[in-house]
């Protein structure tokens, strides 16, 4: 371990309590996507207190700049800020959500705390830092938003790499995954509206039952995954909504389906979108109904760049030794940091935050989700160490 990365770890540890305090403040006051006003204001206050210049982008996003000895090369570091529409069931925590029905159930409060902690570490080192870092606090990740305005703000600058960290509940605390290749799936959201002919349930022959059509669509499209996609390719097509009718004895005239399509290969994504449209239309036609389908792009395929992943692995080793680094399978969840990686080489690192002894053992988006806060200093150190190594190596 060289002197610089050694000092990064040491300085980051000094700010562990600072990051825990920030994270708990944010956890108690969660805000939904596109509503992160209080969170954004906290970020702005902390940056101002450190003397760091920043600008507000979009409604609540923040992009800050810490200049080293050069502005000719830059690294963008990102943290997402939004919470989820979930009622928290961690009443035993003195920092449990104070906003009914809203909860930080994905670790974004920790992400913000780690990046603000990294900002404090950068302030110690900027006199020897051969580059400039852009700290990007993103709104609305859970709703697929917030990236466009940040990317517009970054566009005029010589950004060499983009980097993000996600605290992960399926990885034991303190372990780190930075491997190359597809890491999170592309996620498309779709809605299908089936229109039939309503009638009394006693006379089904006089109508066209949209519930039967919708049920047939669900069954028929399931065969796409089993028979039309290479079984070695990870992909998933799931329905989460089927709504139709109000009365048990009335066949309605309309049914609404909604679901997600997740793929890890761009060719599979394009093929399945077309195939989904084909099966929906043909099924509806065969059963005398009509169907309209809309497909909305969600998070893009998130692929870690090979060279950047190698540099991140080197950084983990320098900061923490060989023990924390692990291999972890690709995930079928989606994350729109992939928007950054479509523009800049970079990666998303996963830091394990699972600790059953402290109750941090529930999955993301669960009402009892929590993280092991002991890893926050690791996240701050990894942000800083990766940026410093980028300035030297990329």
Descriptive account of the structure:
This protein is of the alpha+beta class and 394 residues long. It is elongated, with a radius of gyration of 23 Å. The protein folds into two domains: 3-182 and 302-393, Aminopeptidase, CATH 3.40.630.10; 186-297, Alpha-Beta Plaits. It is built from ten helices and 15 strands. The model has no long low-confidence stretch (mean pLDDT 96). 36% of the residues lie in helices and 25% in strands. α2 runs antiparallel to α4 and α8 (306-320) crosses α10 (376-393).
- Count of alpha/pi helices: 10
Global outline: elongated
Largest sheet: 7 strands, mixed
Radius of gyration: 23 Å
- Strand order within the widest sheet? 1-2-4-3-5-15-6
Query: What percent strand?
Result: 25-35%
Total beta strands: 15
Summed over residues and divided by their number, the pLDDT gives a mean of 96
């Amino acid at each position: 371990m060289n002197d610089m990365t050694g000092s990064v770890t040491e300085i980051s540890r000094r700010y562990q309590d600072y990051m825990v305090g920030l994270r708990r403040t944010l956890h108690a006051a969660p805000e939904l996507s596109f509503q992160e006003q209080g969170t954004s204001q906290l970020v702005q206050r902390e940056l101002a207190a450190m003397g760091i210049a920043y600008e507000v982008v979009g409604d609540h996003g923040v992009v800050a700049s810490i200049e080293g000895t050069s502005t000719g090369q830059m690294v963008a570091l990102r943290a997402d800020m939004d919470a989820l529409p979930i009622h928290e069931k961690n009443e035993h925590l003195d920092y449990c959500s104070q906003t009914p029905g809203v909860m930080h159930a994905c670790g974004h409060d920790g992400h913000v705390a780690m990046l603000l902690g990294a900002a404090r570490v950068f302030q110690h080192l900027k006199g020897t830092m051969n580059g400039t870092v852009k700290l990007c606090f993103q709104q609305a990740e859970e709703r697929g938003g917030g990236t466009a305005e940040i990317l517009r703000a970054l566009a005029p600058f010589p950004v060499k790499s983009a980097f993000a960290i996600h605290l992960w509940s399926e990885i034991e605390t303190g372990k780190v995954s930075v491997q190359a290749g597809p890491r999170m799936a592309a996620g498309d959201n779709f809605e299908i509206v089936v229109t039939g002919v309503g009638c009394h349930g006693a006379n089904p022959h006089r109508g066209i039952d949209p519930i039967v059509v919708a049920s047939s669509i669900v069954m028929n499209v399931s065969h796409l995954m089993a028979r039309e996609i290479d079984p070695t390719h990870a992909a998933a097509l799931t329905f989460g909504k089927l709504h139709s009718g109000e009365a048990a004895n009335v066949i309605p005239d309309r049914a609404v389906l909604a679901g997600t399509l997740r793929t890890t290969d761009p060719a599979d994504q394009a093929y399945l979108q077309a195939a989904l449209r084909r099966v929906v239309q043909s099924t509806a036609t065969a059963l005398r109904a009509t169907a309209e389908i809309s497909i909305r792009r969600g998070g893009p395929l998130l692929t870690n760049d090979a060279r950047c992943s190698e540099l991140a692995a080197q950084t983990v080793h320098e900061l923490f030794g060989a023990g924390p680094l692990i291999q972890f399978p690709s995930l079928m969840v989606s994350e729109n940091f992939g928007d950054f990686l479509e523009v800049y080489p970079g990666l998303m690192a996963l830091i394990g935050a699972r600790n059953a002894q402290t109750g941090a053992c529930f999955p993301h988006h669960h009402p009892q989700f929590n993280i092991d806060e002991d890893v926050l200093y690791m996240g701050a150190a990894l942000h800083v160490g990766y940026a410093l190594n980028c300035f030297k190596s990329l």
